[in-house]
Amino acid sequence: MLIQSINPANGNVLNTWQTHDKEERDKILDQTHKAFKEWKNISFSERSKYFISAAALLRSRKDQLAELMALEMGKPIQGGLAEIEKCAHVCEYYANHAEGFLKDEIVETDAGKSYVNFQPLGVILAVMPWNFPFWQVFRFLAPTMMAGNTAVLKHASNVFGCALEIENIIRDAGFPENTFRTLLIGSDQV
C-alpha cells in the first residue's frame, strides 16, 4: 500500500512511501527485540551520551526539521523551532536524571531487606498523533530508552517524513542499530 504526505497548505504531494508489509514489520520488530537484549545492559552513563548527542543533532537540524513540520502538517515555523528545542531539552533532562528516577527504592518491612527495583520491559510500541510530530515522540522516547527499553514508532500517516527524520537522528547520534525503528504501516496493522 502507498501512503502519501500531502502539504495541507496547497495539496501538493510531498512524498510517497510504500508501507511495510507483514514480513517487513515482523522483521523490524524482531531486530528491535534483539537490540533490546544488549541495550538493556548498557549503563545509564553510556545511554546518556547518546541522548546528549541526539539533543545536539536536534538543535543543529532545527531549521530543516521545523520546515518539514510546516510542509507535512502545517505547523508555523516558529512553533516548529520551539518544538525541536523542547525535544532537545527532554533528551538532556532524561540523560541527566533517569538514573536517579530509576534507582532502587528501599521499602520498610519486617524482612531483612525490601526494595522496589525497576527493570526494562522490552520493545515498546508508540502510536503517535500528527499534531506535535517530534515532541510527542521524544517525550516518550527519552524516558523509555533511558530506562533500558528499545522502541518502535507507528506515527500518524501524514507525518511519515518526520518519523523517518527521528529515526535518522537516533541513528546519527550513534545509538546501537535497531534500538529505535519506525514502522511505515497503516493503523490497520498496529
Shape: globular
Lateral arrangement of strands in the main beta sheet:
5-6-7
pLDDT < 50 stretches? none
Compute the number of helices. 6
Provide the helix percentage.
Answer: 40-55%
Order of helices and strands: EEHHHHEEEHEHE
- The Cα radius of gyration reads 18 Å
The computed structural class is alpha/beta
Q: Largest sheet, described in full?
A: 3 strands, parallel
Strand and helix layout:
Blueprint: E1 2-6, E2 13-18, H1 22-39, H2 44-60, H3 62-73, H4 77-101, E3 105-106, E4 115-116, E5 123-127, H5 135-146, E6 150-154, H6 160-172, E7 180-182
Parallel strand pairs: 5-6, 6-7
Antiparallel strand pairs: 1-2, 3-4
In short:
The protein is of the alpha/beta class. The chain is built from 6 helices and 7 strands.
Structural summary, described in words:
The chain is of the alpha/beta class and 190 residues long. It has six helices and seven strands. The chain has helices at residues 22-39, 44-60, 62-73, 77-101, 135-146, 160-172, and strands at residues 2-6, 13-18, 105-106, 115-116, 123-127, 150-154, 180-182. The chain has a three-stranded parallel sheet with strand order 5-6-7, with helices on both faces. The longest helix is centred in the middle third of the chain and has 25 residues, at 77-101. It is globular.
